[in-house]
Amino acid sequence: MHRLVETYYLISHGHLRRAANEKPDTNESSCEYCDAHVDARYFGQHTEQCALRYKQERDEARKYESQESIIIPCEYCEAPVKAENWEWHVEKCAEAEKKRLEKMSEEVSLKVSNERIPCKYCGHHYRAQVFEEHQKKCRREKLEAAILKRRAEVQIMENLVTIPEHWDQSSTQNLARYVLDPVSDEYQAIATNFHKTLPTSKINQIERIQNRRWFRQYEAHKDHFIERYSKSTEQWLFHGCRRSEAADAIIKDCFNRSHAVNCAAGQGIYFAVQSYTSHRYTSPDANGLRYMFMARVLVGKTTAGNPSTRVCPPGFDTTGARGVYVTYHDAQAYGQYLITYT
């Protein structure tokens, strides 16, 4: 009777295992879920109940774990969001942020469109939509006005410089070449200076170069030198040409430093006190003719130069030595006479 009561107690509590104070029965087996020793007669029923309870406990554990999900902050609003909801939440936040930025951009554009920006040229204020176009137009008009003003100033300065009275006034052109009469005093003075160091050379003709624009530029430069030194530093010097084309180019556009060669004393235009020195830089053409200018040159203050000298050193106007001068300003010399000789 006692045995039956104990068995009933075990079955009613779902254990189906023997009491702890009883010795193991050889017909008992160990439950894989609770490790209890169960009589073989009740083993199947016991394990079935244990398996059911194990499943229930496992489901409860998983339910609890789901309640403790991983929390990730939103990258837009920084709110804590469960991992399983994070992607959806962030997508919504991104959409809201996009709308916020678009609205802000519209507000800024509206504000800018209503603002007026001052033009740096005329000082008037214009809306942003028309400001750039106006300022371009205003800049062009100011530039054109400045050019016209500068031209007027140059014209006034040119009118202040008087053309020499002995020039041939019959030509209305800017440039004229006047062949001197061999018996005139003007011709004889130039020939005498030329023959000092080239006594055997024969002069074919001497032309007076009447380039009004070049002459006015030279005279203005000369006035500046007189202001600086309180005296004239002008000298009559010679300049030889290798070809007649070079002489024609100088007559048209004055001395050009870009054509300078053999720059021993500086990269400028070379002039010499003696005609013989300049003669060495001439070459006869097909008819055996050579060309040499006798020019008016503003010497100013002179210092030594070298092949790398591209501009005159500060405080000086020319470089050179031993009767040779190098100028670095196109208006610093005026080729007044062109001597053609053999």
TrEMBL record:
The keyword Magnesium does not apply. Keywords: Glycosyltransferase, NAD, Nucleus, Transferase. One of its GO terms (biological process) is negative regulation of gene expression. GO terms for molecular function: NAD+ poly-ADP-ribosyltransferase activity; transcription corepressor activity. Residues 163-342 form the PARP catalytic domain. Its EC number is 2.4.2.-. InterPro entries: Mono-ARTD/PARP, Poly(ADP-ribose)pol_cat_dom. It is found in: Nucleus. SUPFAM superfamilies: ADP-ribosylation. It comes from the Eukaryota. It is an enzyme of class 2 (transferase). GO terms for cellular component: cytoplasm; nucleus. It holds the Pfam family PARP. PANTHER family: PARP/ZINC FINGER CCCH TYPE DOMAIN CONTAINING PROTEIN, POLY [ADP-RIBOSE] POLYMERASE. This is Poly [ADP-ribose] polymerase. It comes from Adineta ricciae.
